[in-house]
From TrEMBL:
Belongs to the KAE1 / TsaD family. TsaB subfamily. Keywords: Acyltransferase, Transferase. This is tRNA threonylcarbamoyladenosine biosynthesis protein TsaB. It comes from Vibrio tritonius. InterPro entries: ATPase_NBD, Gcp-like_dom, T6A_TsaB.
Length: 233
């Protein structure tokens, strides 16, 4: 399948856009924590012009659905919805944590990845991923927001070596040092849209798209609060 997919992500300090056209990927990345709204649309224009395609020619629009900065996630999904609505495109939400796992594989060839993004408030956004033979990823346990000190009890011991990615490892060095995983360090700190668009291709091939009005962010912290309400499951 020769897919044309645009992906954008502003969920972290990284402002990122990528366009997949068949086997080619055109991308732009810049660490710009306060300038996402200024930079993201010019980046979109640049990759579309470089590839010589228009929004209306695309098959889908993918976005980093979170977790990440509340403001950043909202900016990304809002811009993605506007672009998709104007071009009548289906949307695909991709986990920013899973995108970082793909980024670690792309750079270092690792197939077991432990992601920790600094979530502020003495917590991290956490997820563990294992690569499959077809290039997709499975979540080893559910993504969550958790204090680093609680990860020791949360994790199950295994014999794999996990590549660590994300800003959480450095933000909470003392607490994360207690995490009992065999692990290696990497230079992957943020999700990039070139990895989001790669994962979105699998979703498109499997028909896992949603209309603009059904696209939604994933904050994780809201989910934790919701579960604590009396009478909710």
């Amino acid at each position: 399948m020769s897919a044309k997919i645009l992906a954008i992500d502003t969920a972290t300090e990284m402002c990122s856009v990528a366009l997949m056209v068949g086997d080619e990927i055109f991308s732009r990345n810049e660490i710009a924590p306060r300038d996402h709204t200024k930079k993201i649309l010019p980046m979109v224009d640049e990759v579309l012009k470089e590839a010589g395609v228009s929004l209306s020619e695309l098959d889908a629009l993918a976005y980093g659905r979170g977790p990440g900065s509340f403001t950043g996630v909202r900016i990304g999904i809002g811009i993605a919805q506007g672009l998709a609505l104007g071009a009548d495109l289906p949307m695909i939400g991709i986990s920013t944590l899973a995108a970082m796992a793909q980024g670690a594989y792309r750079r270092h060839g690792v197939e077991h990845v432990a992601c920790a993004i600094d979530a502020r408030m003495s917590e991290v956004y956490w997820g563990q991923y294992q690569r499959q033979q077809d290039g997709s990823w499975i979540t080893v346990d559910d993504e969550c927001v958790i204090p680093p000190s609680d990860l020791v009890a949360h994790l199950r011991h295994d014999n794999n070596t996990w590549a660590q990615v994300g800003t959480g490892w450095d933000a909470y060095q003392v607490e994360m040092a207690e995490v009992k995983l065999e692990r290696t360090t990497t230079d992957v700190l943020y999700p990039e849209s070139r990895d989001i668009v790669f994962l979105a291709k699998f979703e498109l091939e499997n028909g896992n798209t949603v209309p603009v009005e059904e696209s939604s962010p994933v904050y994780l912290r809201d989910n934790v609060t919701w579960k604590k309400l009396p009478g909710r499951e």
